[in-house]
């Protein structure tokens, strides 16, 4: 049965709490209504009236925050209906994501407006049955550079026009905004998105160091899925000739203010790259993202990336999406898988892997006062994980998500 009202008091114990900088064994986490009220080890803090959750020697972590997510459970947020968006929120809640930024692909003006409206409706009518909460939309497509569109439909890819994107921002729901830095109009787009309080990012781009520097001056602070659909020294050389110039890669690694993200599914990037990204940017400037498409928890087969009606086709083999042989089309895995992969294959300490899936994306998008860590006063978004980091329970705003496994 779904519980429709928050439990007045909830106490999770007998587990190791994962804090941003350390593990806290034999932890006690207490919540009242939708807030965390205590995190520590004092057994004396367990209220007599609280409902007790036994973590059974596993882990207690904050709910995951995903800033780059297209779909799941058979639906893509670009399908443009509230039902589709809700299916995505529910499918990712099962994998521990409690806060998300549904992410546009390339699409027509009408398709993007339909997506923004659907996400607004689901956000405004949230209850526990809806699953993961929507913190904002990631306006990702359509402002990608030619030749760097990856699995997105290139025919609806374009340069940013103020008359068009101002209306997207007027929806009030855009929290993250991507544009390739070399496109005409990118500077004005970045300034507008910065003024609207967005995390401003450059992705699907072949931009040079100098273009990144200009973008940075206009507010750009993040690069989408590091190493994927972005420039490197030789791709910039092909575009701009000699002398060889720095690319997005060198720019991100050298600028401490820049953050980035990795698709840590073990299919997009080899373990040494996951480990390298963490050593270079540390967990304060590196996010884990799923970049998940609609094939999450679906059988292997052919699916559309982006809108159901005319998105580009890809094939899921159950491990990853393929646009064509040898060319990937985003992931088919939830955030729990990314955290396990980063920790085990990337050899990253558990508290760092979790920080990259919680507090860091929350900080970069300005929602860290509300979510992202087990801290008294924050929203009670809490996961119970097994010793092998499988999701056992999901609590969102103090309520138990009943479909958690
Ligand atoms: Zn992408
Ligand atoms: Zn993506």
UniProtKB/TrEMBL annotation:
SUPFAM superfamilies: Composite domain of metallo-dependent hydrolases, Metallo-dependent hydrolases. Belongs to the metallo-dependent hydrolases superfamily. NagA family. The active site is at residue 291. Its cofactor is a divalent metal cation. This is N-acetylglucosamine-6-phosphate deacetylase. Its EC number is 3.5.1.25. Zn(2+) binds at residues 204, 225. GO terms for molecular function: metal ion binding; N-acetylglucosamine-6-phosphate deacetylase activity. It comes from Rhodopirellula baltica (strain DSM 10527 / NCIMB 13988 / SH1). Transmembrane segments: none annotated. Residues 59-399 form the Amidohydrolase-related domain.
